[in-house]
Amino acid sequence: MKASYSLEFVCLFSIEMPTAEGNAFVFLAVDVFSEFVFSTGVEKDRKKDNLLKHVRLLVNDKDFKKRLPVPFTLVFHKYEELRKDIDKIIEPLGGKMIVDDLFVTRVLTPVIEHLFKSLSKK
């Protein structure tokens, strides 16, 4: 998949990070076309309610909303079982969901590499 315009494909994922209080999950989304990274927040787990919360936070993000209305596709590496719940959130905005682990991994890898390079410089 190759994006032709901003928000055509947006990968939403979480990264597990160690903290002094246990692991935390940083929720990020990447617009494949512009490589813009949206951070929707941090949670203590990746349970269904937290994932759906971050889908809502993403589609209500001011930088995301200013690019609408265009058809957009949220791409996940898993969560097929949540398709109906996710569709209820994104379909009214012109969104659809796909699950493609390889695609998300290709998009995610440079973001994580950049994040860790930035952290190691400090």
Poorly predicted ranges? none
Provide mean pLDDT, rounded.
92
CATH class: Alpha Beta
- Second rung of CATH, namely the architecture: 2-Layer Sandwich
- Write the element-wise H/E pattern from the N-terminal end onward: EEEHHEHEH
Which superfamily, in CATH terms, is the homologous superfamily?
A: Ribonuclease H-like superfamily/Ribonuclease H
Strand order of the largest sheet: 3-2-1-4-5
Topology readout:
Elements: E1 9-19, E2 22-31, E3 37-43, H1 48-60, H2 62-65, E4 72-76, H3 83-90, E5 95-99, H4 101-120
Parallel strand pairs: 1-4, 4-5
Antiparallel strand pairs: 1-2, 2-3
Helix pairs in contact: 1-3
Can you describe this structure?
The chain is of the alpha/beta class and 122 residues long. It has helices at residues 48-60, 62-65, 83-90, 101-120, and strands spanning 9-19, 22-31, 37-43, 72-76, 95-99. The chain has four helices and five strands; from the N terminus they run E-E-E-H-H-E-H-E-H. Helix 1 (48-60) runs parallel beside helix 3. The mean pLDDT is 92.
